[in-house]
Amino acid sequence: MLHPSINILPRVLPFMLPLLLALPAQAKDFTVTQKDKKFSQAKLEVKVGDVVNFKNEDPFSHNIFSLSDTKTFDLGSYPQGQSKAVTFEKPGTVEIECSVHPDMKLIVEVKK
Ligand SMILES: [Cu+2]
Predict the structure, then answer these.
(1) How far is the CA of 61 from the centre of ligand 1 (A)?
(2) How far is the CA of 80 from the centre of ligand 1 (A)?
(3) Could you report the per-residue pLDDT of 66-76, keeping only the tens digit for each?
(4) Is the dihedral of CA 39, 40, 41, 45 positive or negative?
(5) How far is the CA of 96 from the centre of ligand 1 (A)?
(6) Are strands 38-39 and 29-35 parallel, antiparallel or unpaired?
(7) What's the gap in Å between 63 CA and the centre of ligand 1?
(8) Where are the domains of the chain?
(9) What is the distance in A from the centroid of ligand 1 to the CA of 89?
(10) 86 Cα–ligand 1 center, Å
(11) Which residues have CB atoms below 5 A from the ion given as ligand 1?
(12) What burial class does residue 48 get, using C-beta atoms within 10 Å of its C-beta: 0-12 exposed, 13-18 middle, 19+ buried?
């Protein structure tokens, strides 16, 4: 004989499904590499809550930072092979630079 709670499942499932679908979308993970003193792309569009991993693929250190109001951070200096993650919690434009290489620029557009 089936347990009573299992019997009820087919009847409550149609009501539960819309609730499950209404849950916020899972945050995405992006990776931007630093190679030849450049970011792998000049511009990146993400959504609020998304994470960008900054991976150094150069045989020397980079120090990625931003002074933007939307997101201020300083990842510090780190060598080849290492990656550091930044979460973007607010919508807006974030200008990202490298304190070691002033020509390195990346714009992250954070959408709602
Ligand atoms: Cu650099």
Answers:
(1) 7
(2) 11
(3) 999 999 999 99
(4) negative
(5) 11
(6) antiparallel
(7) 6
(8) 25-111
(9) 24
(10) 17
(11) 62, 98, 100-101
(12) middle
Q: Tell me what pLDDT residue 57 has.
A: 98
How far is it, in rounded angstroms, from Cα 40 to Cα 91?
22
Q: What are phi and psi of 8, to 5 degrees?
A: -85, -15
C-alpha 19 to ligand 1 mean position (Å): 45
CA of 35 to the centre of ligand 1 (A): 9
- Cα distances (angstroms) measured from residue 45 to each of 25, 102, 103: 16, 22, 21
Strand order in the sheet with 105-111: 43-47, 105-111, 92-98, 62-67, 72-78
Class of domain 25-111 (CATH, top level): mainly beta
Q: Which pLDDT belongs to residue 75?
A: 98
Residues in the chain where the model's pLDDT stays below 70? 1-6, 9, 13, 17-24
